[in-house]
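Re: that backbone. Tokens:
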């Protein structure tokens, strides 16, 4: 029998979740009355997409792990819901904390809500206003059913109010991913960076840009992906580019028989600390990631976002981010102006 009074389950499933969960878990662990447990849905499962993040962020092995990776959206979401429901029924948590906008976030929020368990959503209120993004659907549904809406930037408050959220449930709390970033920067001072595979590469290149690419809108269609690779190839002739390849992108490059040219440094996915070690000194970052727009803003690194929109407008209005779409000319012109 558990003597703790408050039982909280934190949900993580995909790579961008771990850095949002870690600081909250570490903080909750300081409260003797709280039992904080972590569910890892297994949406991401490769060592370098998952385990290494837990290690780098200093958090314990998850209390529960499902093997919910791969499959269609419905298959993945359903598998997570079935597994999470069993845990919720058995352990009856007082609160479930979900983060971000991935399928694991949606699946666990829906499951908990239907069991009348309170939900807190971290990174609430972000909107790209692009319903073709699976993440936008996830964000809207999760916010609609969450009891505590933890907002990371002020646009989130405006969006939530417009959608009719009750003001008393909205809390402007800042960005837990940036807490992890600070944690990571401190850890980097302690570790011997020569152990990183990219250490020599970084030293030998001097100036370089870092690229990340994984959005279905950029990598799931052959013509679009080939066009982006052509832009990267062009830019890399002036400034070396390093691209750690996301599994989705790697699979699609293979499927479409598109080759990353030899003058671009393509790597396997990197762990949290090694990736930070790499991008913190980059001349610029080219990305379609959400989180990286915020991390580069915090570090004042120019970021070019290869999308038509962002759910994180503060990175553009107050940060270093520019939305460049995937138009070759505008991307190249922007890189030139940075250089
Ligand atoms: C998911 C999130 C996206 C987030 C991204 C970060 C959704 C809808 N999408 O997209 O919001 O930005 O994570 O990475 O939740 N795969 C592996 N190994 C892994 C993980 C995935 O091989 O460790 C493969 C999967 O089998 C699948 C593909 O990569 O074929 C995509 O994985 P999936 O979780 O479906 O979506 P992501 O594109 O990673």
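Recovered sequence:
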């Amino acid at each position: 029998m558990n003597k703790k009074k408050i039982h909280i389950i934190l949900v993580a499933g995909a790579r961008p979740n771990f850095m949002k969960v870690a600081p909250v878990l570490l903080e909750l662990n300081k409260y003797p009355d709280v039992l904080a447990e972590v569910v890892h849905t297994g949406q991401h499962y490769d060592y370098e997409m998952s385990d290494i993040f837990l290690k780098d962020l200093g958090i314990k092995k998850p209390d529960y792990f499902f093997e919910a990776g791969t499959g269609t959206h419905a298959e993945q979401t359903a598998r997570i819901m079935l597994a999470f429901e069993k845990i919720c029924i058995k352990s009856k948590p007082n609160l479930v904390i979900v983060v971000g906008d991935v399928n694991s976030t949606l699946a666990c929020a829906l499951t908990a809500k239907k069991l009348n368990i309170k939900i807190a959503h971290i990174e609430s209120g972000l909107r790209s206003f692009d319903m073709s993004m699976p993440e936008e659907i996830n964000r809207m549904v999760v916010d609609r059913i969450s009891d505590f809406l933890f907002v990371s930037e002020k646009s989130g408050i405006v969006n939530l109010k417009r959608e009719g959220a009750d003001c008393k449930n909205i809390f402007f709390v800042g960005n837990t991913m940036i807490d992890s970033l600070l944690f990571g920067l401190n850890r980097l001072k302690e570790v011997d960076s020569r152990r990183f595979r990219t250490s020599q590469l970084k030293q030998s290149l001097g100036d370089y840009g870092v690229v990340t690419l994984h959005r279905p809108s950029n990598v799931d269609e052959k013509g679009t992906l080939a066009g982006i690779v052509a832009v990267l190839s062009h830019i890399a002739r002036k400034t070396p580019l390093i691209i750690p390849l996301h599994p989705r992108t790697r699979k699609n490059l293979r499927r479409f028989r598109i080759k990353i040219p030899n003058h671009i440094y393509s790597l396997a996915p990197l762990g949290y600390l090694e990736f930070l070690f790499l991008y913190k000194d980059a001349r610029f970052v080219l990305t379609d990631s959400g989180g990286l727009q915020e991390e580069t803003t915090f570090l004042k690194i120019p970021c070019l976002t290869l999308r038509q929109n962002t759910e994180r407008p503060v990175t553009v209005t107050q940060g270093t981010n520019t939305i460049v779409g995937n138009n070759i000319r505008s991307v190249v012109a922007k890189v030139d102006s940075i250089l």
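Residues 238 and 336 are 9 Å apart (CA to CA). The chain has a mean pLDDT of 96.
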